[in-house]
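Ticket 4471: requesting a sanity check on a complex prediction with heme C. Repro inputs:
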Amino acid sequence: MKARPLYKLRLLSTAFFLALFIFSYSQDEITGDGAKGYDLFQTNCTACHQIDGKLIGPELRGVVTRVKEDGGVGKEWLHSWIKDNKALRATGDAYANKIFEENGRQEMLAFPNLSDQDIDDILTYTTNPEAGQTAFEEAKKAKEAEAAAAKAAKNSGGGGASTGVVIVGFFVLAVILVWILFRLNALVKLTQAEELTSEDEAAAVSFSELMTKYDKLFKAGMALLVILALAGAWNFMLGIGVDKGYEPAQPIYFSHQVHAGVQGIDCQYCHSSAKYGKVSGIPSTNVCMNCHKTVKEYKGDYYEEHLVDNGMYASADEVKKFYTGEIQKMYQAIGWDPAANNFTGEQKPIEWVRIHNMPDFVYFSHQQHVVAGEKAILKAIADGTIPNSKELNLPDNSQVCFACHGDVTKMDELKMANQFTMGWCIECHRTTEVDMSNEYNSQYYAELHEKLKKQYGEGTKITVDAIGGLECGKCHY
Ligand code: HEC
Ligand code: HEC
Ligand code: HEC
Ligand code: HEC
Ligand code: HEC
Ligand code: HEC
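Returned structure tokens:
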């Protein structure tokens, strides 16, 4: 048995190397979620990278294999590079410095906010971009369907507190149905039985007794149901489509606070059609380029401190770099090469997510409110009589837009500030006094004004409802 120990040793060493191999392999293996990676890539990297083709940085399809083949580096290097490429270059890392030189010494942003798992997710996506994108889109679709179902359920229930009322209503209905079923059952038994046993007779009597006894209760139950149904229908009409607070993520992180607040750009510089018609419209990228041909980086003092407080970014400078990245995204969309100062001709229109959207059967005109109604609405803001006035808490120098959209100059991401329901429109029309001195109204409503003055005396307040602001046909086609 001399061979035995040798055999054991061999087995042991094979196992050892196998383990070492598996260990080193798994060290370098990247396991991530491609769908999450797609999302992270879209928000963090598309300013400078594409999957296919060079943008500001190199294309990222198959980058894991590429850095292995070209630079002999792996997962650990990629993590260090993405987290802080400058620090990596500073260590004298040969490959990092090589690609920096090769790309014209263009600085890549640092991403200290990305976790190891985030980076693995992104790298998984770049290894198989199609799979990642498909998985992301499928998950998104499923989520949207879920949200739509939840919203439909909320609307039909009238939302919040009234959902409880509906449940109670259904409970009452169920009790009544069960009771009717019992009664029918007894009646059927009665007619079917050729001869009533004394037991049946007793039961039948007690049921008819029950019915007379609980007749009032039954009627009250029915009345309650009818009232619930009517109240539900009315609430439904007044409150449908409530989306207050809706704040979707936009394809470019455009801050109203930076533009309309810090920079003080007039709302109508960008939303220029409000004065002239139904819609305010979203500015085209050409309008952005009036300024951004020269404003290429974010250098302002203002930044969102909460992004640092919540750990999204490490410092004020990182937040500002993020803003600069968003300006780069805009260049990419319009096909502008900021280094060469010319258009490349490759455009990808920015698809802003629409926030406010009235149903087709509603007629709303910005002109009516922003021009004819401006003075009246500004006075109502100052008097604190606009709907939701307390919560909106508008400043003294408010613009007319704020009455409905809130103080947009303090919103980084725009959100819906009011309910935008029929009940909301009507509330404001009931309480807002019309400005009879403006040219349009003094001509248009002269006769009506005289009549109202005669009827109620000089100095009566004429609110929008008095000039027809509650007529169905004014707001509905
Ligand atoms: C502000 C522009 C910018 C942003 C944003 C950016 N990069 Fe880069 N990236 C570059 C540039 C430029 C290079 C080329 C190296 C250099 O010049 O420093 C590069 C290189 C790389 C490389 C090395 C590629 C190779 O072929 O060796 C990887 C990997 C990389 N970036 C990943 C990312 C990821 C992941 C993100 C998003 C989290 C990202 N980058 C965001 C500009 C950017
Ligand atoms: C520099 C251009 C610019 C200025 C100035 C500006 N906006 Fe905007 N606004 C935009 C862009 C771009 C969007 C679309 C992206 C978004 O929703 O954030 C937008 C969206 C909106 C929306 C939502 C539109 C929707 O989808 O329903 C409202 C409301 C709005 N702006 C109101 C205002 C008000 C009020 C002011 C003035 C206090 C103002 N904006 C100033 C560019 C501007
Ligand atoms: C009386 C309330 C009211 C006032 C005042 C008002 N808006 Fe609006 N705004 C609305 C409503 C309602 C919508 C939704 C319209 C729709 O979906 O048809 C809207 C939609 C918008 C949109 C989305 C695009 C569009 O036109 O549908 C923008 C942008 C906008 N408003 C900007 C402004 C700006 C800028 C001002 C000030 C100059 C302003 N609004 C004043 C009620 C108002
Ligand atoms: C009237 C000039 C002007 C117009 C028009 C304008 N911007 Fe800006 N934008 C600026 C200035 C100024 C800054 C801040 C630069 C600074 O402080 O260093 C800025 C900053 C930004 C930033 C970084 C801060 C942030 O908001 O996230 C982005 C992104 C941006 N603009 C996108 C846009 C887009 C998109 C449009 C068109 C819808 C647009 N801008 C229109 C002047 C303008
Ligand atoms: C902040 C208050 C306010 C809100 C909210 C408001 N309105 Fe008005 N509305 C007015 C004022 C003030 C006038 C009168 C303008 C004038 O002097 O012609 C007016 C007038 C109108 C008129 C013309 C009435 C007529 O008899 O000629 C229509 C139509 C109208 N609003 C529709 C709407 C719709 C639809 C909504 C909701 C989406 C709405 N308004 C929300 C203040 C408001
Ligand atoms: C001041 C403007 C205004 C007036 C006046 C008005 N409505 Fe509306 N109505 C609206 C708006 C805005 C909506 C859409 C609300 C939404 O989408 O959240 C609406 C929605 C509706 C709906 C649909 C509710 C649903 O379930 O989708 C009905 C039905 C309706 N109105 C009936 C009427 C009738 C009947 C009158 C006359 C008594 C009337 N409206 C007067 C503004 C008005």
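Notes from triage: Residues 162-239 form one domain. Leaving this open until the requester confirms.
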